[in-house]
What does this fold into?
Amino acid sequence: MAVNITMPALSPTMEEGTLAKWLVKPGDTISSGDVIAEIETDKATMEVEAVDEGTLAKIVIDEGTEGVKVNSVIAVLAEEGENPDEVDAPEQGEPAPDKEETKGGDEAPAEKPAEKQAEAPKEKKTEAKSSSEEKQENEPKEAQRKDVSKELGSSEMKLADVGEGKDRIKASPLARRLAKLRGIDLSALEGSGPHGRIVKKDIEAAEPGKAAAKPDADQAKAPGQPASPDGLIMPQVLDDRVYDPESYELKPLDGVRKTVAKRLTQSFMQVPHFPLNVDMKLDRLLAVRKDINEAAPEGVKVSVNDMLIKASALALMAEPDCNASFTDKGIAYHKSAHVSVAVAIDGGLITPVIFNAQTKGLATIAAEMKDLATRARERKLKPQEYSGGTFSISNLGMFGITSFGSIINQPEGMILSVGTGEKRPVVNENDEIVPATVMTVTLSCDHRVIGGAEGARWLAAFKRYVERPESMLL
Amino acid sequence: MADYDLIVVGSGPGGYVAAIRASQLGMKTAIVERENLGGICLNWGCIPTKALLRSAEVLHYANNAKQFGLKIDKADFDLEGVVKRSRDIAKQLSSGVSHLMKKNKIDVIMGEATLKKGKEAPGVSVKDKDGKAKDYQAKHVLLATGARARSIPQAGLEPDGELIWTYREAMVPKSTPKKLLVIGSGAIGIEFASFYNELGSDVTVVEAMDRILPVEDEEISGLARKQFEKQGLKFHTGAQVKSLKKGKNDVTAEVSVGGKSETIKADRVILAIGIVGNVENLGLEDLGVKVEKTHVKVDGFGRTGVQGLYAIGDLTGPPWLAHKASHEGVICVEGIAGENTSHPFDASNVPGCTYSHPQIASVGLTEAQAKEAGHKVKVGKFPFIGNGKAIALGASDGLVKTVFDAETGELLGAHMVGAEVTELIQGYVIAREGELTEAELMNTIFPHPTLSEMMHESVLSAYGRVLHI
It folds into this structure.
C-alpha cells in the first residue's frame, strides 16, 4: 500500500502553511525520522520528518506552494516491494482520505427519509430494499467519479483551489457580476443564501460603497478594492494612478510578515492600550552585571536584557493582577511569568518565550535567550517556543531610543518598552545635581484587564528590582 | 398542554408536504382532511388530468401512426377505460400519501376543521363524518385548504354538474360531448380543450383576454394557438360570455366579441375561469384573519398575522400550482422550526406548466414584462425544427425562448412551447435559483441528442452564438 504523506499541523492553531522546500526527490529511499521537507508556518520554518519508510513515489505539492491545508496530501511514499511508478497518487489539494470531511454541508435532506426508511424495521420490506438497492447502485458510480477526478483532476482541482480557501467568498455568479458592475466589495457583505452564499438580493440591499457591514469586517474599505488575504491589512493595493508600479519593488508577503501584520493590526484595533512611563537608575544593575559576568564560568554572559527579563518576571509575581489576559469568558490570571522577548528577524518580528522566568537563574535565562534568538533569526523556532507568553519585553536600547510604546502582544495584558540607558543629570537626595545612568521604560497595558494603578504598582516593583538588583536574589 | 406541535388543515400537495417536513424537523404533527388524502392535486387535479392527457397523446400517435411508418388500421378509444385508468392512478397516489403519513408518524384526522380562538395558536375542532366534533390544540396551525373553481352565477356561469362542468365533472365524462365550449384559456381550460379535441370533440375556447394562455409570453401563446388551430381547436379571444342558457341537452352561450354578439351552441360547457380560495367555514372571521378576494393574506413565510396561524398554497393566492404550495409549505414549516435556511417565497421563480398537446412551460418574466420592468433585454430563440431529437420524435413544432438582462446576464425568464417542455423547464428554474448568468449556461454541456440542447442553443442565440440555425 502506498502511504500518503500529509501536511502536518505544527501547532494546534495551524490551518495551512507554505511548503518551503523539499529535501528529497522522487526515487529517494526514506527512512523513518529522515527530514524530508521544510514547512514555513506563520512564524517559523519547520522540518518535516518522515514517519514511514519507503521510496518517495511522487511529490504532490511542489515546493514554494503557499496555503497548503493541514492534512492535505503533499507526497506519496511507495512501501517496500511496491513499484513507485505505479503508485496511484492523489492530485494536489486532495485531503487525506481518513481525514476527509463529508463534502457539501447540504447533506441532502431528501436522503434522510431514505435512511430512516432503511432503518425502520416495521416498514414494508420492499420499500427498505429498494432504497438500499439504490444506495448500492450509487456507490460504484461515486467511486468511479472519484477515480476520474484523480486522473485528470489537476485542472479541476486548481479551479477549486482558487476558491476553496479559507477566504473564499461564496457568491452566486449573478451576484459576482452585479458586484463587479456596481463596484461593491463582496467581502464586506454577508450572504443570505444557503450556507451564507451572497445572492442578488444581498447586492441589491447593499448600496454601492456602503456595503451592509459584516459585523467583523473593516468598514473603511473602499469599494472595488480586492480583499486582502487577511482582511485586516490596509490598503490592500497601491493605486497604479498614484504609484507607478515600476517605481517600487513588490515583495510578496511571507508567513511571518502576514502574521505580524495581522496580529498587530488586530491588537491595535481591538485592544484599548494605555502607556505608563517611568525612569530608573541603572548604575547598580550595571555594576552587579559586571560582577556577575566576572564571576561567571566560561561561556556565561548575562546581558542587561536578561536581567530585565528576570526583574519583570519577579515583578509579575509581586503584582499578580498584572499577569493577566482578557478573554470573552473572563480575565485569565496566569500563575507563572512566561516572558516573551521581542526579537527582530529578517522580514519581521518574533517573540520567543522564556517560560517560568521567575524560577530561572540569570545564567539559565541568558543561555536560553541566546539559543532562542539565534534560532529565531534562522526561523527555526518551534511554534510552542514563541507562543504562550504572558507578558512581553521589547528593548530598543541598543539603538539609542530614549522611549517608545509597543503594541500589545495579544492575548498578553502588558508589554514593556525599554529605552536606552544613558547618563543624565539627576537630583539626588541632597538636592544636588549628579550624573547617573538612567533608562526610561514605557509599559503598554490592555485597559480591559489592567488599570492605571495596577500598572503603576507593577512598574514600582519592576523599578525596585532594577535599581536594587540584589533583591532579585531574595 | 398542546396535543401537537403542528396541525395542518388540508392534505393537498401543500399540506401533506408541509406535514412531512415538520415531522422531519422533529415536530409532532397531525393533518386534517375532509375528503381524500392528497387533495385536489392527486385526486381531481394535476395527476388524473395527466393520466387522461397521456391517453389522448397515445391516441394521437396511433392516429398518426403512418407518420412513423407504422400501420394501425383504426385507432379508437374506450372512454370508460380512459377514465378508469385516470381514477385508478389517483387512488394509487392517494394511498401513497396515506403511507407517507404513516411512515412519517403523522396523525391523520379525517373530518372538517374549524378554528377557535386560542392562546398560543387557534384551537382546531374537527367534525367527523357522523357530525361528532373533537377539539385539538397545537402550538402552530397551518391552513392548506386549497381552492375550487370560480363561478359567476350572475352570467349563468355556474356549474350544474350535468351540462355545465368544472374540472371535476370534466375529468369523469360518461361520453365525449360532440360540441364542447371551454370558457377560459388558462392551463386548466387549455388542457381539457386539448384532451377533448384529441378524443374527437368539436371544441371552442372563449377567452376574455386578447390571447390564449394570457400569463404566458405573447410569442409563445401565439405559437401555441397556431398549433391548436391546426389540430382543429377554435378560439374566440377578447370575448365575454354574457350568458349561458341551458337547453334540454345543450347549452347556448351568448358571447360578445369586439362589441358584436355571437351565439355558440354546445352540448357541454367547461368552466375554467379561475379559482377561489376555500376560506369558508374555517372560523377565520372570528380570529381576525385578513381575507382578500377569497384568499388569505400572508407574508413570505406564510404567517397570517394571527399568533400561531399560517396559510399556504392556493388558499393564499396565485399562482395556483401544486409545486408552489409544496414549496410554501416547506418554507413555512422551516420558519416555524427556526431553520434559517430558506428565503421567503418568491413568486417569480415558480415555473408554470400546461400539459396540453403541445406543452407550454415557463419561468420568470415574459419579454414584455421584462421590458416593462425597465430591463434592456437580450432575447434568445431556438425553434424545434433545428433540433435533431425533436425531428426524430416527430415533434418539430415549438420554440425555446430565453430573456436575459443585457447588462447583468441575469436570466429573467424562459418560455417554451413544444413536446416535453414541461420536463425541460426545471433546468432554467435551477439556473434562476442558482443565479447563473449566460456564461455558466453557455459553458454547460447539454447531452446530444436531446431536446435540452435547444435550451443551450436558445441561450447562445441571445448572445449571437447560436450553432444550429
About this structure: The longest strand of chain B covers residues 239-246. Residues 1 and 361 of chain B are 48 Å apart (CA to CA). Residues 358-462 of chain B form a domain with the Enolase-like; domain 1 fold (CATH 3.30.390.30).
